[in-house]
Amino acid sequence: MSQRKVSPTGPDEQATILLKNDSDQMATVALSMHSKQPKRAMISCEKVFL
């Protein structure tokens, strides 16, 4: 499942993605290109391939 907000110039400016695997484990990915917070990314994984 995912949702997005498109900017007036075309590309996505906000997006949220909900992921779920066969074991019913879920993860959420959220991003915003227009927030006034520092732009940073953190990925925490255990036994996973990206």
Automatic annotation (TrEMBL):
<protein>
    <submittedName>
        <fullName>Uncharacterized protein</fullName>
    </submittedName>
</protein>
